[in-house]
User: Fold this.
Amino acid sequence: MTKSELLSVSQTVVNRTSDGILVLDENNLITRCNRSAERLLDAAPNELNGKDFSWIFAKNDRRTPKNLISISNSNPIAFQDENGEVWLRSELGRNFPAEIETVPAIENGKEVSVVLFQDVTTKRASQRVIDRWDAYSKDVLRNTIEVLGQTVAQRDPYTAHHQLRVSELSAAIGTLMGLSSDDMIGLEFGGLIHDIGKIHIPGEILTRPGRFSREEFDLVKTHSVIGHGIVSIIDLPWPVADIAHQHHERLDGTGYPQGLKGSEIDRLARITAVADVMESMTSHRPYRPGLGTDRALSELMENKSTLYDPDPVDACVMLFDSDGFEWSVNSILGGGAKNTNDISAPQKVRSN
Ligand SMILES: [Fe+2]
Assistant:
């Protein structure tokens, strides 16, 4: 391809791209531009030539720029609003948000600047719609999961409260651990529904005061497998079903139902396990009062790294010892709770 053919190709690309392109001289005056720049700025052919570059920035819009930013080392200043958006002004006075960049270049031995910009009105509007829809979807999903989690309330009010409180504590632990917002959603949802499998445990077992027999306890332990089956029906982008399945697994493989070890257990399930034990031990049971924060924290600390993931344990200790964590959802106290399925507390505490 000859040099003139290359130039022709470049000119075609420059004129067909939807980005506006301006070339500025060393005094920041527009020397030439492509057709998209004229179209975006509502300018007639060659009307932009000779204008000062600063002319294209919106200055009197209701989003009056608060800050000036340098968009390149030696090039003109651009105005941005409080959201960090750059707003441009067309020849007809139309203001629009833009993405803009400048590229320094040398032309005929002189420094020039090539400015590329695009109108992002549609892109921003689309993103706002997506963001709103995303927030709405998560709200609906959260409410749905909470309602589903609370379906156990009628036969087992303790578990209904327990799930709300585990979700709250898990979220607090996750926040302290610096989890991503995506993981935080999974953690919160997992807590809300982790014991949903108890809905298939006969009501007479769940509501009967007193201790479980070995057979009853074995039956109640099936709730994690049942819960996994229920939650798996919902196609969620978070490991909520794994949390239901694995929150009674322990790092050394002594948990249930699969006897998973260490990293075989989902990370969010390991966090939920810590919150589950903490909530269970500190909450009242009809056959015993709550065992107290200190005893629950001792259980977690003594078995840190053997039964429980050390990171959520450390976060949980900090929450209660330093941050004065308190649940916003009160536990069921007094005679309100009928069941005794204290299956999250460790064996040495549980006596059924
Ligand atoms: Fe459970």
User: Anything to note?
Assistant: Confidence is low (pLDDT under 50) at residues 61-77, 333-341, 347-352. The pocket of fe (ii) ion is lined by residues 194-195, 223-224, 247-248, 344 (CB under 6 Å). DSSP finds twelve helices and seven strands in the chain.
